[in-house]
Design a protein that fits this description.
Order of helices and strands: HHHHEEHEHEHEHHEHE
Largest sheet: 7 strands, mixed
Strand content: 5-15%
Oligomer: single chain
Shape: globular
CATH topology: Rossmann fold
CATH architecture: 3-Layer(aba) Sandwich
Number of domains: 1
Structural class: alpha/beta
Number of strands: 7
Strand order of the largest sheet: 3-2-1-4-5-7-6
CATH superfamily: Vaccinia Virus protein VP39
Length: 290
Amino acid sequence: MDRRRNREDKALELMSPSRTAFGAAAHRAAHQVLEEGRIFHDPLAFELPDLNRDEVVEEARANPSRTGLRHFIAARSRFSEDMMAESIAKRGVTQIVILGAGLDTLCCRWPFGAKARLFEVDHPATQAWKQQRLETAGLQADPALVFVPVNFEADALIPKMVERGFRLDQPAFFSWLGVTPYLKEETTFATLGQIGGLTAGAEVVFDYPEPRDAFPEAQRKLRDQLAARVAAQGEPFLSAYTPQDLKPRLESLGFRRVLDLGPRDIAAKFFPNALDHTPEHGGHILHATL
């Protein structure tokens, strides 16, 4: 029996979300304690990923240099869900798509009822892990949820979604957080191109980093430390963009409204008390609408 359980535990570990996904989940969880969830409230931040509260908080307090990253991760989740709610209430969006859903908890705290369907798109092994984790934790996903297993390296996104009930004649909102830095540029724009080809209307929120050369010397050390950590976990940074280059490329794909929030815009919106100490360059959150 013990051997079988060990095999099952190892199999579950092998198909679990990436280490960077767990890292982002830990930052969201720490935010619930250290900032009392003021930017982004998530009552399941510890429960779904099965994080130890004391360990997460101790790690965050021991690394104050990562506070800015924690704030950014909380802000991108808040912004995406704010824009999501606005798209449903004001623009009649009926389909919400979480790309690379991983440890996202929205499926268990779904606030929109029958107004929209929720499609979680991720690698089949990661989705199998999440479904088992939901069962183990006794968490109930909303009936709006539809799992869409996709191997992003081999599968075309939109056809796989259509197979699971995605409607091409209805508008959609895509949330794509914490993913693009780890993708090759051509993969990112192939996905954005598919979203841009949805004639019924679509919008997308995603985040991205600026290139290393954009950072002043004092910031490069922190950026390089983060790059080294994710590379050591087998998930190196592969791409970065400047706002000046990204906007026209999005417009060429059919996106007509592009709202790009840089570090100081994000601080002004979500934690203005820190604005005076916020650097000009860093991570961006972008909302593009067809």
